[in-house]
């Protein structure tokens, strides 16, 4: 648990990358949720769902690669001070999972606000009485949101495996080299 809290701090320290990937994950989760919702319509759009899934897989692999690539000297320094490959892997996995969960919570917040605005009628039209909103009024159902989270976490496994493979290649001597 201590390493996971350090992973969160590590993710938050790289503000720009964290914000960009969290926002991208949020957009991709919304897109995946909507495309999953469209799968249950009369005319399902399989191409849109596949593109969303491949985009999420590509993004998770890219994010894992970027983390390990930019943190090479930090990883080497951690290995110099006694961190094992397992500890470093926990840090990388924690950073990836934290970014994914942040995107999920932002997506959930957007969905809650969309439904609240729809119920209260702000900006959309006349207010409806509480309890009269059909759950299908939402473009994203909670089930699709949870399925999307599960898909994203499973896809993150591929990125984590790539990251772990690259972490194993980082040697502690790299921290002692002079960077140009």
| Class inferred from helices and paired strands | mainly alpha
Mean pLDDT: 79
Rg of Cα set: 20 Å
Query: How many distinct folded domains?
Result: 1
End-to-end span in angstroms? 36 Å
Q: Globular, elongated, flat, extended or rod-shaped: what is the shape?
A: elongated
Query: Count of DSSP helices?
Result: 6
List the uncertain runs: none
- Give the beta-strand count: 0
Biggest sheet statistics:
none
Overview of this protein structure:
The chain is mainly alpha-helical and 180 residues long. The protein has one domain (2-172). It is 75% helix and 0% strand. It is built from six helices and no strands. It has helices at residues 2-13, 15-39, 46-70, 72-80, 85-120, 142-169. Helix 2 packs across helix 5 (85-120), helix 2 (15-39) packs across helix 6 and helix 3 packs parallel to helix 6 (142-169). The longest helix has 36 residues, at 85-120. The two termini are 36 Å apart.
SSE inventory with pairings:
Layout: H1 2-13, H2 15-39, H3 46-70, H4 72-80, H5 85-120, H6 142-169
Helix pairs in contact: 1-5, 2-3, 2-5, 2-6, 3-6, 5-6
Brief rundown of the structure:
The chain is mainly alpha-helical and 180 residues long. The chain has six helices and no strands.
What labels would you give this structure?
mainly alpha, 75% helix
């Amino acid at each position: 648990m201590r390493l996971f809290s350090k992973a969160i701090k590590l993710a938050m320290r790289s503000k720009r990358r964290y914000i960009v990937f969290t926002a991208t994950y949020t957009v991709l989760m919304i897109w995946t949720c909507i495309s999953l919702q469209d799968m249950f319509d009369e005319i399902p759009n399989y191409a849109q769902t596949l593109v969303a899934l491949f985009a999420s897989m590509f993004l998770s692999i890219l994010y894992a690669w970027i983390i390990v690539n930019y943190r090479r000297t930090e990883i080497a320094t951690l290995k110099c001070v006694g961190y094992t490959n397992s500890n470093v892997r926990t840090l990388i996995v924690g950073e990836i999972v934290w970014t994914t969960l942040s995107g999920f919570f932002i997506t959930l917040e957007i969905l809650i606000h969309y439904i609240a605005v729809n119920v209260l009628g702000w900006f959309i039209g006349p207010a409806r009485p509480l309890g009269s909103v059909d759950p299908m009024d939402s473009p994203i159902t909670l089930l699709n949101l949870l399925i999307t989270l599960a898909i994203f976490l499973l896809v993150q496994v591929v990125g984590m495996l790539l990251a772990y493979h690259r972490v194993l290649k980082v040697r502690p001597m790299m921290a002692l080299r002079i960077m140009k």
